[in-house]
Amino acid sequence: MQLFSVKELLSTTPNSQEVTVRGWVKTFRSNRFIALNDGSTINNVQCVVDFENFDENTIKSISTGAAVEVSGTLVESQGRGQSVEIQVNELKIHGMADPETYPIQPKKHSLEFLREKAHLRVRTNTFSAVMRVRSALAFAIHSYFQQNGFYYMHAPIITGSDAEGAGEMFRVTALDAKNPPLNDEGDVDYKKDFFGKETNLTVSGQLEAEAYAMGLGKVYTFGPTFRAENSNTSRHLAEFWMIEPEMAFYDLDANMDLVEDFIKWVLRYVLENCPDDLTFLEQRLLDEEKTKPQAERSEMSLSEKLRFVIDNNFKRVTYTEAFEILRNSKPNKKRKFEYSIDEWGADLQSEHERFLVEKHFKCPVILFDYPAKIKAFYMRLNEDEETVRAMDVLFPGIGEIVGGSQREERLEVLQQKMAALDIPEEELWWYLELRRFGTAVHSGFGLGFERLVQFVTGMGNIRDVIPFPRTPQNAEF
Ligand code: 4AD
Ligand code: MG
After folding, report:
1. What is the pLDDT of residues 245-261, one digit of tens each?
2. Per-residue buried b or exposed e for 387-406, using 16+ beta carbons within 10 Å of the residue's own CB
3. Which residue is closest in CA terms to ligand 1's atom 29?
């Protein structure tokens, strides 16, 4: 007897062939119809059980969540909504799921409830769809770079340098927390720690990727990154995955061209390769939108939003232009923004980013040439000495999805920048050497993977697009 996935069965022409399939019971109706799902697709295969052929205990063991193996003949379905069904001859119960205690019942559960059941939530339609799309997106990202001459580079997860100078890092230590060795000043003596220095989980693989780009030409990282910021928002995780391409000889314009082409390619890939999951997620979003007040509802469906990004040019706007638009905007004048925009140089908050994207330009926006003061030390200083060659890509519903820049390739300028920010040269001596030996114009960016998954799946909360989210006060699983 041949083993099939549900996905395979649903695209097989039935002619009473013998098939076997394994999965979890979604529903069991009338002691006769099992809707079986194995995760291969959002769709279930219907298995028809003639209860007279099975003992009572077996029939009793079939309930939502049970793991079963079904063998039978594949025939054209008598019922509506499916092409094939299995007339069950053999039934093996791998594991029962007590209906009294199994939490994932065939009814609507709130996303909040399911977050508490993160080990079981992938058995729901919503989470299985999201996670299949997530997987497809990861594959698409690798495909894009591999087809375009980039090498996949694994940046270290434990790092001795703080790339963003943000200081919001998770310390990695092997010292005894209760009784750490102290130095003469009475501080913890990290010289005695595992690495002989202070180390942290990385916030970004960028600096290491720069080193590799200056030898391999075009590289990308795709790995976990960690931030200990106490941001309890729907767009922040303490552990998230980031894609960071880095390209030698690319200036900011080339960087902007790349990010736009890359995102569009990846979106096209999922539209073509995940139709069933996207159809489901689109309906889910429509249902969710119906519960919101009219004014807050999105004008576009999920697939329309994806198409819209693919079909339109990203609007490229300097910070200074955006600042003027925001300063003169209605919500700013009416003091509707939480952070009002009065002085050039102000950092933009997500309310401003979303105003620009959703209300003003109504398309994805690439903001560039930001004030040097609000951006990281490694970004290339412009002639005006006030702005740097930074770029952020802003998306509807999400805000910032990408942050990147042309890097400062001039040794003296970089040294001055670091001195001004009190970043000791000894800490980044190797980064400075990249400017001493064969330096060149180069650029890169970082795409927050979960924010992309949010955009594609229409999920409102970033906790619902990663298997086991890490957020403040939450690392249960
Ligand atoms: O803008 P960020 O901080 O940029 C960097 O880390 C650069 N080193 C990237 C580079 O140029 N190679 O982060 C990049 C992106 C953001 O635009 C956002 O999408 C995502 O990473 N991101 C987060 N996603 C989830 N949770 C968080 N706490 C995030 N912080 C940033
Ligand atoms: Mg950023």
Report:
1. 999 999 999 999 999 99
2. bbbbbbbbbbbbbbbbbbbb
3. 236
CATH 3.40.50.300 fits 123-168+203-464, yes or no: no
User: 223: Cβ below 6 Å to ligand 1?
Assistant: no
Given a cut of 80, whether residue 1 has pLDDT beyond it is no
**Token pair in block for residue 216:** 């391999």
> What's the CA gap between 403 and 252, in Å, rounded?
12
Q: Whose CA is nearest to atom 31 of ligand 1?
A: 448
- In the chain, the amino acid numbered 243 is I
Ligand lying nearest the CA atom of residue 446: 1
- Distance between CA 206 and CA 243 in Å, rounded? 10
DSSP SS3 for 443: strand
Domains in the chain: boundaries = 2-106, 123-168+203-464
pLDDT tens-digit profile of 43-101?
999 999 998 899 999 999 999 999 999 999 999 998 777 889 999 999 999 999 999 99
Cα 77 to Cα 87: distance, rounded to the nearest angstrom: 10
Compute the distance between CA of residue 70 and CA of residue 85 in angstroms, rounded to an integer: 11
Q: How far apart are CA 221 and CA 227, in angstroms?
A: 17
Distance CA 350, CA 327 (A): 15
Q: How far apart are CA 35 and CA 43, in angstroms?
A: 9
358 Cα–ligand 1 center, Å: 21
Give which of 73, 20, 114, 135 is closest to 452, Cα–Cα. 135
Residue nearest to atom 6 of ligand 1 (CA): 204
Q: Beta-carbon neighbour count of residue 194 at 10 Å?
A: 12
CATH fourth-level superfamily of 2-106: Nucleic acid-binding proteins (2.40.50.140)
166 pLDDT band, cuts 50/70/90, is low
End-to-end Cα spacing for the chain: 38
Q: DSSP state, 322?
A: H
**E-assigned strand segments in 160-285:** 171-172, 199-201, 218-226, 239-248
Return the amino acid letter for 114. L
Longest dimension (CA), the chain: 85
Which residue reads 């609007």 in tokens? 315
Contact 450 CB / ligand 1 (< 6 Å): yes
**Length in residues, the chain:** 477
User: What is the rounded CA–CA span in Å between residue 474 and residue 461?
Assistant: 15
What torsion do the CA atoms of 236, 242, 247, 253 make, to the nearest 10 degrees?
-30
